[in-house]
Automatic annotation (TrEMBL):
Name of the protein described by the UniProt record: Carbon-nitrogen hydrolase family protein
Gene3D superfamilies according to UniProt: Carbon-nitrogen hydrolase
Keywords, comma-separated and alphabetical: Hydrolase
InterPro entries linked to this entry: Aliph_Amidase/BUP, C-N_Hydrolase, C-N_Hydrolase_sf
Species, as recorded: Paludibaculum fermentans
Key word Hydrolase present: yes
Keyword Ribosomal protein: no
Alphabetized CDD domains for the sequence: nitrilase
Domain CN hydrolase residues, every copy: 7-248
Gene Ontology terms for molecular function: hydrolase activity, acting on carbon-nitrogen (but not peptide) bonds, in linear amides
Residues spanning the membrane: none
Tree of life domain: Bacteria
Amino acid sequence: MSAPATLQVSCVQMHWATPLEANLRTTLKYIRAAAEAGSRVVLFPEAHLTSYYFPYLVNLDQKAVLDALAQTQKAALEFGVWVIAGTIQKTHDRFLNLAHVISPDGAITHEYAKVHMAGRDEMQYCRGGNKLALFEIDGVPCTLVICRDGRHPELYRIPAMAGAQILFHPSCSSDEIEAVCWKRTSGRAQQPVGPNSKIFHCVANTIGQSPDGLQTSSGMSFIREPNGIPLAEAGYYQEEMITSVLDLARADRGYVLDSLANPPFLKEHWEKMIADVRLRADVKPE
């Protein structure tokens, strides 16, 4: 199919440490809200269905997790929107932190496992994925990273070399209270990628405290155009949805195409990596 000139995207900011049942209700509410706002895509935070609170999620019944994901797929079908959802699921070898790209037909068309672990609990319980994300939404080439992955530009710049115009970035920047305050001051949690790629950057982050009160999350979800200019930004503390229309002609990928061309001795290496990313794009994380 031919790609549209614009794409309306909503990013949902949610609590990171609430139970599966509550997370599912919030997810379904915002899928409806995004559709009613006219959005074609709705992005949720990292692990928004299972939560990112490991003392809780490692004991979840995996059938309940899969059922919540199935209900999310049904909502995507009911409201005719693309949904990017997140779970942490148990596998034969530890857990995987997953993003699921769900089409308006209710089918999972792409899955990506977080590559770079963050925090003691995630490092203890999870292992990293072994591919980069490259997929299409309505004919628009896209990529995604999960939270800490955004600190590693090769994970989105190589897919941008391969054609991706939008980076979807589900995140949960939970940390000790002092660290979160510092993240807000420094902008460390999610730094805009447009200024080193010339692609759109859509971030859905989390808010709220852990049940023990020792951790919080920084909020500040955003949608930024390819020069890094904010189109929409969320606050520090509340669950909310932000929405923007992306003028796709602005995502010309200029900086990554310059990197692909110069210096010339690197071009064949970039091209080999691009080919490998394409080859692995449909590999299911497991």
